Amino acid sequence: MNCPVVDNLSGLLTSVLLFPCVEPSNEKGRPSLSGLLRKERLAAKRQEDLATALSVTVKVIKMLSAVRQIRSEINAGHERLAARRQGNADLWQVVAPFGTMPPPVLFTSKESAFILSTKDRDVMLTTIGLAEVHNDLPKLVASYSERREALTSSFPVTQVNGNYVAHDFSPEETRKHMPRVIQLRSLTGAMILRSEKDYSDALSVFNHLKAYCVGRFGEDFPPLEIVPEASGRSANA
Q1: pLDDT tens digits, 180-229
Q2: How far apart are CA 64 and CA 205, in angstroms?
Q3: CB neighbours of 220 closer than 8 A, spacing ≥ 6?
């Protein structure tokens, strides 16, 4: 004996499996409402990701600019030192205390999530790590400025040229303040190494991030460039 309920249920299941429900469009060839909504959601998500990508890139540019400024001051100190006739002068004697350092640059949780979402190893590892590096270098520079100011504030200026002042110490004065002098020599040496490496790393981060964003967003991502250094050292992105 056939059961009509079972037969009907079997037919219903067959019709559902073979002919799934498709939301009809208002007119032939026009997308459905759900399709339009999905398209709008994807467009909105893309715009949000683009805005986040720009925010991350701007912060990288800020870090790059800050490191380049420190590096530029140190390089200018080398040039001034080379131009002086005294052969026993130290770099710290011609590199004045730095001004106010830029505030720390931190990525928001949304920016960090975007960086991780790239799934690009070069972008992920270098970009997130750059913030920590950038926030450490200004501390080193601030320590140098504080210690140099403490040592030189009680000594007369022996040379003024443009925007810098120089202090010359006699051998007796150098021996008297040798512990402080050693500290300043150590700090200038660390700043030289860090500024060169951090600048190279920051420029590499910018280039990797820019290449990824251009590949992902195309012409919607603005053509950001790094202005070349006046000294002739190229920093083009």
Answers
A1: 889 999 999 999 999 999 999 899 899 989 999 999 999 999 988 887 77
A2: 9
A3: 50
Token pair, residue 147, equals 């210690």
Which of 126, 143, 147 is closest to 197 using CA atoms? 126
Give the pTM: 0.73
Residues 6+ apart with CB under 8 A from 88: none
Domain boundaries defined on the chain: 42-220
Q: Domain 42-220: state its class.
A: mainly alpha
Secondary structure (DSSP) of the chain: ---HHHHHHHHHHHHHHHS---PPPSSTTSPPHHHHHHHHHHHHHHHHHHHHHHHHHHHHHHHHHHHHHHHHHHHHHHHHHHHSS-SS--GGGTSPPP-PPPPP----HHHHHHHHHT--HHHHHHHHHHHHHHHHHHHHHHHHHHHHHHHHTTS---EEETTEEE----HHHHHHTHHHHHHHHHHHHHHHHHHHHHHHHHHHHHHHHHHHHHHHHGGGS----PPPPTTS-----
Beta bridge partners of 166: 159
Place of tokens 């012409």: 219
